[in-house]
Amino acid sequence: MKKFTCVEDIGDLRAAVAEALEIKRDRFAYSELGRNRTLLMIFFNSSLRTRLSTQKAAMNLGMNVMVLDVNQGAWKLETERGVVMDGDKAEHLLEAIPVMASYCDLIGVRSFAQLKDKAEDYEERVIEQFIRYSGRPVFSMEAATRHPLQSFADLITIEEHKTTERPKIVMTWAPHPKALPQAVPNSFAEWINATDYEFVITHPEGYELDPKFVGRAKVEYDQRKAFEGADFIYAKNWSAYADPNYGQVISTDRDWTVDSEKMALTNNAYFMHCLPVRRNMIVTDEVIESERSLVIPEAANREISAEVVIKRLLESLK
Ligand code: CP
Fold first, then answer.
1. Per-block average pLDDT, block size 10, for the chain (318 residues)?
2. What are the residues whose beta carbons fall under 8 Å from the beta carbon of 306, sequence distance 6 or more?
3. How many Å apart are CA 63 and CA 314, to the nearest integer?
4. From the CA of 273, how far away is ligand 1's center (Å)?
5. How far apart are CA 53 and CA 32, in angstroms?
6. Is residue 312 within 6 Å of ligand 1 at its C-beta?
7. What is the pLDDT of residue 31?
8. pLDDT at 34
9. Measured from the CA of 53, which atom of ligand 1 is nearest?
10. What is the distance in A from the centroid of ligand 1 to the CA of 274?
11. CA of 302 to the centre of ligand 1 (A)
12. What contacts 18, CB < 8 A, 6 or more positions away?
């Protein structure tokens, strides 16, 4: 594997999950693989889980790790070619990328959607430049349109907890006060569509995702109807994708908050969310604290998904 930005890059999902479960049984089994290798993690945006779990995964593999927060202590980076750099951005990505690459063997990048220009976001301009100009294996730590390390961890978590071969998975939009990217729901949909699980997406009208990611999923605008018989409820907020409202909050309807009354409609479903989560906006205290909440094991599996991905990228260097 030379890069990791989407579900296609991981190949066979059953093999990937089996490898993840093997690593989970002994996460230090490959501690020699990364000896004298360096991972550079570059953050254009904040993180708790991705930062810690990815660093831990790399350390499990014996790597050295460097972390750069672009907006805290580094030169502000210009990402567009052709710009007259007379503003506050002192360095261009086209110099910064090869310089950073000269200090490391692998690069992880977090660069969220700006939510101003759909075409720009969906072209993935920042991470694509790292892939093109670094000469190093690059992996996404959440890019503009996908968060594959999260989705892989979500899939591992579902595999660990499912009690039927084809569980019903429901991804539900839930309210949030700020405009969030579509990366997590896009990516979750992409990964679940690559399985044979039953898959339903529910959201208010106007929150339709890019059809490329919706794929074979059934879209149900009645949240309560969608929840009926569900085995897993995956909650997430996202901003509007459809024009003319791209990147905007068009509803904060608290009737979409996941609560115990709605969870009672399910097949005793597990509750999932990638975190961070706004309690009593996305989900009630009662649901997230219930014994069916998987948010902590799901976050813990971020270490495992990252370890599989970094292991495979290291193997490509040999
Ligand atoms: N789920 C997730 O990616 O969390 P962070 O934004 O804290 O890394």
1. 98 98 98 98 97 98 97 89 94 96 98 97 96 97 98 98 98 98 98 98 98 98 98 98 97 97 98 98 98 98 98 95
2. 53, 54, 56, 57, 58, 149
3. 10
4. 11
5. 19
6. no
7. 98
8. 98
9. 8
10. 7
11. 9
12. none
Amino acid sitting at position 153: A
Q: What is the pTM of this model?
A: 0.97
**CB count in 10 Å sphere of residue 89:** 15
Closest CA to 240 of 80, 121, 79: 121
Ligand 1 closest atom vs CA 50: 8
Q: Is the CB of 49 under 6 A from ligand 1?
A: yes
Q: Which domains are delineated in the chain?
A: 3-146+302-315 (3.40.50.1370), 150-298 (3.40.50.1370)
CA of 83 to the centre of ligand 1 (A): 31
What span, in angstroms and rounded, lies between the C-alpha atoms of 158 and 120? Answer: 33
> What are the Cα distances from residue 188, in Å, to 22, 155, 274?
23, 9, 10
Q: Is the CB of 303 under 6 A from ligand 1?
A: no
Expressed in angstroms and rounded, the spacing between residue 89 Cα and the centre of ligand 1 is 26
b/e sequence 273-308, b meaning 16+ C-beta within 10 Å: bbeebeeebbbbeebbeeebbbbeebbbbbbbbbbb
